[in-house]
Predict the structure.
Amino acid sequence: MQELHDAPLAPLTTFRLGGPATRLITATTDAEVIDAVREADDSGTPLLLIGGGSNLVIGDKGFDGTALRIATEGFSLDGTALELAAGEVWTDAVAHTVEAGLAGIECLAGIPGSAGATPIQNVGAYGQEVSATITEVVAYDRTARETVTLSNAECAFSYRHSRFKAEPERYVVLRVRFALEDAQGLSGPVKYAETARALGVAPGERVPLAAARETVLKLRAGKGMVLDPEDHDTWSAGSFFTNPILGDEEFAAFRARAKQRLGEDTEPPAYPAGDGHTKTSAAWLIDKAGFTKGYGTGPARISTKHTLALTNRGAATTEDLLALAREVVAGVREAFGVTLVNEPVTVGVTL
């Protein structure tokens, strides 16, 4: 277990932002993770968990406490059952399952970060969410001070949310188990319209696994959503805001505001989101409120490839990023009466 003091955290995040941690521990086994967590809890030391750093916004002053980088390794396939250690690189894990001919997470290719983060956020893209294939999550329960195994139902998954996100100080994910599908080398049914169009198939059809993965990677790369150290559009946390889910009255008011602002023929994006709720597009809201691709003149700007990504152009501070985020939130609220919610976790700062 490696230990550093006054350790820079910016290089451990995809934003490349944030100040140092008082102490940084890198754990490579589950036992080391648990020991570090227990030590912090016993001493009352603030604890920050870091996986792939793709969903973190750390303040410029850094973190006054122990940052624990989870770098555990483990990829195990038994038939269609997959188990991943929390520190496994997610993109590599997806590639291995595709090579093994198993369907279920192929459309989640290219998402940066670690496997242990996927259940926390209920990671999803291009018609798939991990909640559809996760069977169990093994975690250290800081309240009970023991290792527990939570079933899919106990994880309480919903859109970009879970029990782990609801109780961020309680659970430390150690391992994630999935049930994949052997579809004779074919993908799961293609659900996302953009993916189906790119593949030249109708929604609901299956395609070769490799084709599904490669198509998603190309779509993501075109939006700056595949990490590339030479491309500042990827110095981001991917989608910075979640798609708003509105109640019927809220959506009706939003729709009326959109028509008033953009014309009576305007129909904002609308997707069913459960009884009495409709999901709309954060990217549409941002763009129609006047924050187009490449918006900004400072060191933090909207990506030139995707309006949902806020980016560090190389010399930004976290405060630069937050100023841009606040400007976008205020502009969308003024234009449409909808308040955007940030997707990344903020450390030592708030919007």
The first helix runs from residue 30 to 43.
